[in-house]
Amino acid sequence: MVSTTSILALVAAVATTVDYVQAHGYIAKPAPTWKDKETNDWVVEIEPQWKGGWDESKGDPGLLSTFKELAATNNYKDLRSLMDGNPVYGEDCGFTDPKGTPADPPTDGAATFSRGIVHAGPCEIWLDDKMVLQNDDCQSAYGDGTQDTISVFKPVDYSSCAAGGCLLRFYWLALQRLDGKTVWQAYKNCIPLTGPAGGGASQTTPSTGGGSDTSQTSPSTGDGSNVSQTSPTTPSSGDSDSPASKSEDSPASKSEDSPASKSDSPSSGESDSPSSGESDSPSSGESDSPSTPATPAPESPPSADTPETPPSNDTPEMAPAPSSKCNGRRRRRY
Question: Which pLDDT belongs to residue 111?
Fold first, then answer.
């Protein structure tokens, strides 16, 4: 028959084992990329690397006191210097992939553990080569001694992360008594980040076109202005209201009976002037006629030798000429 004492001892052993197995963890936020699979395990569990009175230390306070005492005599600088590049402390970055998918840094200035830290010992967080968080006992600083209360490391200043990204490194050296002996458990996580919290990469403002060299084409205003403006090269449509069908220098160019459209002056129907009624220019004086639109002329400035006859102020605007005049004018042209 199994004694009650034996049963209680077995239950206590199982409880201790469960607590020992589950009392691990990793940085869960920002999220790491795993080399193989997600795990809470330490990278290595080793005997203390500094000789001293570890086994005589009383509880967690005794372990921390012994670590602090021996650190001074062993030229201890920080966990990263102690644990990286030394195979005794396991592979750098542990089970996490430093070249994995970059994670966005938390905007609350914190890094969150997967569970509560329940072992005494120092921890550190680095962003590239800058230490941004350190404590000699992360269990008391960021937990309550139970794994149910998730440990949150803060403040973590993510602003030192470069705009192009950086690498977060987490180190924790857990000091633990196991079967009456002291052991060191090494934890290492590496998590690539996209950049500082909230961004930081410069934003490129698109050009507004204010410095553009592209010329702007304006229609003729018909107000008598001598400012040279480039009109479209499409032929006149025959609509007298089209800006391109009016002479820029003569508001009365629509009149069929005006001297500007019928006289033998240099602006006559046979002239090469752009204001000619028979001109090949798009601005034909025959624009009110239903006749076939004039052939577009090449874009060239008016001849300097061809004077333009100013319009008569006494000439009233007339209604468009009947189609018979257009027919007679065609016969004369042929």
Answer: 98
| Residue 89, both tokens | 């402390």
The DSSP secondary-structure symbol of 34 reads B
pLDDT for residue 24: 87
DSSP 244: G
* Cβ atoms of residues 76 and 184 within 8 Å: no
Residue 98's H or E segment, with its range, is none
Q: Which of 39, 25, 27, 43 is CA-nearest to residue 126?
A: 27
Residue 289 pLDDT: 41
Q: Answer for the pair 171, 77: CB distance below 8 angstroms, yes or no.
A: no
Q: How far apart are CA 296 and CA 131, in angstroms?
A: 76
Q: How far apart are CA 171 and CA 174, in angstroms?
A: 10
**Which whole-number Å values give the CA distances from 14 to 10, 11, 24, 227, in the listed order?**
6, 5, 17, 99
Which regions in the chain score pLDDT beneath 70?
Answer: 1-23, 198-334
The reported pTM is: 0.56
Closest C-alpha to 233, from 288, 287, 282: 282
User: Taking a C-beta distance cutoff of 8 angstroms, is the pair 293, 238 a contact?
Assistant: yes
Report the C-alpha gap between 189 and 85 in whole angstroms: 14
DSSP, res 273: S
Strand ranges in the chain using DSSP code E only, listed in sequence order:
27-29, 44-46, 111-113, 123-127, 130-135, 152-153, 166-178, 181-193
For residue 85, the one-letter residue type is G
Measure the CA–CA gap between 329 and 117, rounded to whole angstroms. Answer: 104
How far from the centroid of its chain's Cα atoms is residue 272's Cα? 59
* SS3 per-residue string spanning 173-209: EEEEEECCEEEEEEEEEEEEECCCCCCCCCCCCCCCC
